[in-house]
Design brief:
Elements lengths: L1 H21 L10 H22 L8 H14 L5 H5 L10 H15 L4 H8 L6 H15 L4 H54 L4 H25 L14 H28 L2 H9 L3 H34 L3 H8 L7 H13 L4 H12 L2 H15 L4 H64 L3 H4 L7 H27 L7 H25 L1 H12 L1
């Protein structure tokens, strides 16, 4: 699966690079360095960046590391052989490179006879994450003196969880600054675009100047969005284990329907009215269909995750008294767990009729489509398999889940204000750009009329109108690109399901079209007398 994804990414890169290089034959020589530079940037991001990343030491405490240490602690409560602590059994997904490192330590320590302390010293040289490296070194020294790792792992788990909370708090504060920089950049881009348009008029510049300015502004803002994406934690809400619930297929069908309707409606309205603003506004509305459905899924997953810590604590305490999964689950389900209840009832039904427990728990993960649930169920199932203390394990998983969800709420609170600000600034950007273009259009008509009627006027007012049709088309494309960029900025800041990006995108495009249409209508009313005067001069 991973190889297929890598192949797809390489194919996409080759296609994009080929398109950019082919475009060299169709653009002026002055602007040919732009596609070449874009190709070099893409190659750097795709090939050189991962190579640099592999050789860079990081200091990172993320939820994957938290759950890894929690998983090791949960298994250690069953007092298994030491090798078992390093060979964690996951029923769905895993811990990426962490898994590989732990299994290699177990192999060197037991099968090759290195011992755990020496095996850890050998393997940690390949570890990029300094936090994980230091944790392994401390664990190795503890195992070397023969101490029980349970207490140590619990202490490390608590310390890492506290460190992650503090680290996340610092990131949230930095996020406020970065989001402020982004909104300021969008505001500045509005004035830059207006300045370029006006100077193009005053100095009779080519329309290519305006196009290059638009490209430069768009690239700068896209780069800022990429910086946000790299800095902010990537909180995956849905799992990616290769098996998915029916909602994913339904979403994809709605996406195809929404995108098709959007294109058809936009083309029909543009062909019928010739008005790009109306076509953009009405054509964007069908994108709300997949967007709102994704929002519905996201809300359901968050509600399921909100009830899971309560369930896992109750189940752990019950299982510690009645160590039989179906009986413990039956007792636990006497309480209500909101939308999670029906999935737990299905789990109980599967276990009752004799379905393999591993398959039953995995189906729970697949059906809920929750990444947080996947991590917790992996730990819970392996703790049961290792004979762990489920009372402590359930309490620990409940505490960890609550604290992670509480951390994520801080991000949501920060991004709500950012989302509203982006909508307002984007609307102002579209309004001012459209109004300036309307003023220039009227001014060009007036100047052209005066230069035609009055001999020598072209010497007094030596303005050569730039092609307004091309400028207006470039502005419409620029506004669409800005809407897409701002929509992704909102989604990157929010986190969660990226499939919900269609909601802000649809709103931004629809608002852009309505604002453009409204400003044009108001301008025609405000300057009606001036336009009549221009027509009079032309007639005379």
């Amino acid at each position: 699966m991973k190889n297929t994804l890598v192949l797809k990414n390489n194919v996409v890169l080759i296609v994009v690079a080929a398109i950019l290089l082919i475009s060299l034959n169709f653009i002026p020589e002055t602007y040919r360095p732009i596609p070449v530079a874009l190709v070099l940037v893409l190659v750097f991001l795709r090939f050189l960046m991962p190579w640099i990343k592999k050789r860079t030491v990081t200091y990172e405490v993320d939820d994957t590391l938290i759950y890894l240490v929690t998983h090791m602690y949960a298994v250690s409560t069953g007092k298994p052989p030491r090798k078992r602590i390093f060979e964690l059994n996951n029923i769905a997904g895993g811990y990426g490179d962490y898994d590989r490192i732990l299994r290699r330590i177990a192999t060197l320590a037991v099968e090759w006879g290195f011992g755990f302390a020496k095996a850890i010293r050998v393997v940690v040289k390949e570890t990029r994450n300094k936090v994980f490296r230091d944790f392994l070194m401390r664990l190795g020294e503890l195992l070397n003196i023969g101490e029980d790792p349970e207490i140590f792992l619990d202490v490390e788990r608590r310390a890492l969880l506290t460190e992650m909370q503090a680290h996340y708090g610092r990131i949230v504060e930095a996020t406020k600054l970065l989001l402020g920089v982004y909104t300021s950049s969008v505001s500045s881009s509005m004035f830059m675009a207006i300045t370029v348009i006006i100077f193009s008029m005053l100095f009779s510049s080519s329309v290519n100047t305006v196009i290059v300015a638009y490209i430069g502004i768009a690239v700068a803002l896209i780069f800022l969005v990429y910086v946000l994406y790299r800095i902010l934690p990537r909180e995956r809400l849905t799992h990616n284990i290769g098996e998915y619930p029916p909602e994913r297929t339904k979403y994809r069908i709605l996406l195809v329907i929404g995108a098709s309707l959007s294109i058809i409606i936009g083309l029909v309205i543009y062909g019928y009215s010739g008005n790009p603003s109306l076509a953009m506004s009405l054509g964007a509305l069908p994108l709300l269909i997949p967007g709102f459905y994704a929002k519905k899924i996201e809300k359901k997953i968050r509600e399921i995750e909100a009830f899971f810590p309560i369930f896992v604590r109750s189940f752990g305490l019950t299982y510690a008294t009645v160590p039989h999964t179906p009986k413990a689950l039956t007792s636990t389900l006497r309480s209500d767990y909101g939308p999670l209840t029906r999935y737990l009832q299905r789990l109980l039904a599967r276990l009752t009729i004799g379905v393999d427990p591993k398959v039953s728990w995995k189906k729970l993960i697949v059906e809920t489509w929750s990444e947080l649930l996947r991590r917790n169920v992996n730990v819970l199932f392996d703790a049961i398999d290792a004979g762990g203390d489920l009372a402590n394990v359930g309490t620990v998983l409940s505490e960890t889940s609550f604290r992670i969800m509480d951390i994520r709420k801080q991000r949501i609170q920060v991004t709500k204000a950012f989302e509203s600000t982006v909508y307002i600034i984007h609307s102002l950007l579209v309004a001012v750009l459209t109004f300036v273009l309307e003023l220039l259009s009227i001014f060009y008509k007036l100047m052209s009329t005066l230069q035609t009627v009055e001999t020598g006027m072209h010497i007094i007012l030596p303005f050569q109108p730039i092609p307004l049709d091309t400028t207006i088309l470039a502005t419409v494309v620029f506004i669409i690109v800005m809407a897409i960029t701002n929509a992704f900025a909102i989604k990157v800041a929010q986190g969660g399901m990226y499939e919900t990006v269609w909601v802000p995108l649809s709103i931004l495009l629809a608002v852009s079209g309505l604002v453009m249409f409204g400003i044009k209508f108001m301008s025609s009313m405000m300057f009606a007398e001036l336009l009549e005067l221009t027509e009079t001069f032309t007639t005379v």
